[in-house]
Protein 1
Amino acid sequence: MWIEIAHFATLIALLLAIVLLAAPLIGIHWQRLVWIRIGRQSAFAICGLLTLASAGLIISFLQHDFSVRYVAEHASLKLPVFYLATAMWGGHEGSLLFWAWLLSLFVAIAAWKHWNTHPVSMPWVLAILGGLLLGFLLLVLFLSSPFERLIPPPPDGRDLNPLLQDPGMVFHPPFLYMGYVGFAIPYAFAMAALITAQGDSEWILATRRWTLFSWAMLTIGIVFGAYWAYYELGWGGYWAWDPVENASFMPWLTGLAFLHSVMVQERRQMFKTWNLFLIITTFALSLLGTFLVRSGVLSSVHAFATDPGRGVYILVFMAILLLFSFGLLTHKADLLKESPQMDSALSREFSFLVNNLFLVAGACTVLLGTLYPLAVETLSSAKVTVGAPYYNKVFIPIMLGMLALMGLGPIIPWQRSSVTRLRQEFLPALLIGIVVTILAPWFGITHGSGAVATGLIFFVGVTHFGDLIRQARIRMGRESLSASRATWLLVTRNKRRYGGLMVHVGTLIMVAGFVGSGLFQEERDLFMAKGDSMTIGSWSLTLESVDKAAKRNWTADEAVIRAERPGAEPLILRPQKRVYNEHSQPTTEAAIHSSWREDLYVVLGDGVKEGVWAFRIYRTPLVSWIWVGSTIMVLGVFWAMMQGRRIKS
Amino acid sequence: MISLLNKRLMLMFTVIMVGGALVALVLTSFTGALVYFHTPTEAVAKTKELVAKKIRIGGMVQTGSLVRESGTLKIRFLVTDSTTHIPVRYEGMLPDLFREGQGVVVEGTWQSPQEFVATTILAKHSEDYVPVDMSEQGIAKSKESLLKSLK
């Protein structure tokens, strides 16, 4: 019953998407406002209908309606309610519907918020987003329908993949999708600005919050994924340069480049074409990210079973989007004259230019590594994988370069700086950075790039806090305020700048986490019988017993391990090997003890012989800094979002 | 005027240098990091040229071939594509899904012409969640779909 309502609602939404595409264009052509209004109303209606459709699918899950193929494939009678409700995006059909629903929601918000402020570009924005919605709904309805019936219905479903039965995995896709879909709005505004040749930089100001929001959501989505991989997959790491992880990382990189380079356009009217290029690329990569996962052309743990028809449709969709966007960009390129020119390497715009160079090089690196195996497989019969060493080799220098620029960029003035000014602003930070790099090996950071990274973290930290103190002093002197009051006023009056700097500080903490966990992880494979002990770092671990444990839809072998460290309370760790009822293969549940200093991570392996079990034990320094750093980053973005437009002085 | 032109040239030069360095970095790292994938038959046919090179071999774990050395994490088994069997040696933790009669990808090197020493074992995931490179079928399918779309 509910699934028919959902199906029908989606069909009407498809028809309305055609209206959303066509009506504003008719309105522009015949200068009839009423047609544009119709477009706007249909945007709201589509949002309502797709909300109904998504609700219908969720209700089918909650009712255990196994006559719906999608429900039968992704749920079972024993699946807890929480996972039943969220299994909607556990497979590709449902997640595409979810994508379409998010897009319709964002389109409705854009149509509501920007209606009065952007009358000229609005019809074009609506039409472009209508086209996107149409493309997605065609895919949902005709090539990967979650509404299909399964007759006769099975008595019980196949259950949700056990790896996905985890809170981390429940929240990972929605955030990622919010990020991907969010970039559609700035993209549409950029295209509309190109078509109408209006307002030059207006589209950037209009969509600043959308861009920031999308980038923040993408960050949360990626970090959730990394966190899930870390505690669910049992391999002690959080990032494997898997093609699908890469797919989410690419729009993150170009989106970050965009966030920086639009500031140059806003302040100096430069990089106009480049910014359009970046937003098109970012949105195209967002689509690529969605599609790569959903088409199954890539080999990865994330890839679902393949369907050739879908692959073709997706490639055609991408081709149309790219041809339209870049065609328009080249066609209208003469409108984008850049008046001012860059005249010094010692300027903020130049440091942003190099920053963009690094970020885009990073994105190209990932793109090459992700698509090269596909190209090789298609053009020859050879199969090839690009390993993590490639990415690590390239990304370590890129990260170090980005760190150096991060110290420079926000402090150095626009247009040009002078040597005296540079000396005053950077000399102390530079000296501290160099001293830290030289001293790092004495504190155990014996790895070359680790020592440089540590030095740079200090360099950037000192420039950032130095700048805050300098600015606060100026305010204190001018308005005779107390130090804390002056700092507070500074940070709250200019939320854009200090939100941005907060993101930088979060990044520094994260990089410290990368250095610690990436270079100094200790790993031990061994087998233990009851009563056996082992040591790792300052920890001593003793196996007390291996018992049976069970919950609603799984049973498990559970090891009980006592972990002791001098001067601390002993801990009990319980790693498990679970077997979910509907699935024959076991899954690993690592036991993790997390602290600010290091994580202790224990995985239970197979029984080697009677009473003897294999274990893999990791000691990973500073992993939790990655989660803390990313939280600060996201808070920084939200802080920056709280400030509206810059007041023109 | 000349100095302004010079300055702009210098700026361009800097950008090109940085860009060039990045491209060089990517390309030099890339060639070394490729790991080719072979079926057991291919891997045996090319044993000589593949010696000491890191490769991946994909096939099935031959039923009845798995031998565990009691009290250690050392195992031996045969990887097969039903025409050729390759003896594989491995020491360490096994992935959850590693089982006899299941698909497997082993990454490692030929130690001698008779023995492949694996450093990493990737097992096939459950039925409804197939990493494509683990199954010949999957590869054929995705290739077909791509070729189709390219035409």
Protein 2
Amino acid sequence: MQRRVVIVGTGHAAAQLASSLRQQDWQGEILLVGEESQAPYQRPPLSKDYLAGERTADSILIRPAAAYASHGIDLLTGRRVLSIDRTAKMVALEDGQQLNYQKLALCTGARARPASIRGVGSPGVFYLRTLADVDGIRANISPGKSAVIIGGGYIGLEAAAVLRGLGMAVTLLELEARVLSRVCASEVSAFYVEVHREEGVDIRTGVEVLSIENGDGIRVVVCADGSRFPADLIIIGVGVTPNVELAEACGLAIDNGILVDEFARTSDPDIVAAGDCTNHPNELLGRRVRLESVPNAVEQAKTAAGTLCDRPVPYQSYPWFWSDQYDLKLQIAGLSEGYDQVVLRGGKDRQKGFVAWYLRGGRLLAADCINRPKEFMVARQLLARGLAVDPVALADETIDPKNWLS
Amino acid sequence: MPLIHYVEANGAEYEAEVPVGQSVMQGAVDNMIDGILGECGGVCSCATCHCYVDEDWFDKVGPPEGSEQMMLEMVPAPEPTSRLSCQIKVTAELDGLVVRLPVSQY
């Protein structure tokens, strides 16, 4: 019997894993199977230029669907996996088909976290995670009409920027006292609030949404403090939750994600996992993490491919992220969690940009770089090489950041 | 369709037909050439599509500008002909272009 890898999922990790297996000369079949109906596509544009209508669905495909076939990769889209039988080494699909495997890769990703708000299922109310979600949103975008965005994370803020650009009246409601509270220093949050207000977004923080009322064609977002926001379009962006159910049901170790080691191996030697769904060790950070990011999906998938091809290379990479809003390009190196000091470089200027460096005990943890690509690249190297920089120098614009690397 | 030659750091050579208007990065991703990652999808945010343009082709391709230039200064192992391949749009003139890929993109 021919060797076969079944990859569950069709996101960034799955697409990279299939490609890397072929590159590393995996001899045998590769099957990609997932419930979304499209070939693997890029998720970041969903809240950016795809939402804005500037790109087509075809143009955000990671590669054309035909490229999989021409590399001997079977792409089974629109097919949901129901269960995994690890003893029989068999994956059961919802449509009754059974796929046997020698090796299995779980790239199941994450899904939008359900909001505990009454009326979430009403028409005109959308999460923002999949192409189908965004197609639904796009059908409800109309200049002059009103949109309410629930959640002030990156997704909510990016969507707010796009909808303003398309001429909608936008209100953004955030439960916490400030936007981006989970990921940014208060200085950075304040800067983004200021920019969004300049652009005309009505941002309200410390607001708990209770329900969405839907009557006579008018939707109203109702908050705990009694405030009410009529809306033609409602978008909910309150985070994601990893898709671990398949792994859990077949008895793999789970703890805030599918537990894998530095080689992307799960607790079953024939099963690897990569991407948003995994909880993995990161030696550079000295702890386990579950990351929601494309770079993590891509790089961990490469590691998983190496493991399956008996060329194990440990996955060690500093996390990084990006977010585009208006004319602001935010690039984030590292994880700021646990910081005790924030050093600003530059004067919170939209054009010139600035950097927020995050330190703990004088050691660099992360950097938020707004329109500062050079500092971003330097920050990644500082982190990867464990180099220390005097916090006073980090703030000093007369010093070329390049000097810190020598 | 213009033919682009990709040479991996380990010497492996690939050639791919890349449509005019598409980026050299996308040509590599479409053809599953692993030495280019293109994590950000081509918006010049990640520098994981770094390549070295063959010296004979560099004048035709041209130098980097703006944020691409700033990021290239800081990639691992930059060279005088370094470019981010997501910013190189394929034209008929670039038929036969040779790019070499770095040992690592991160």
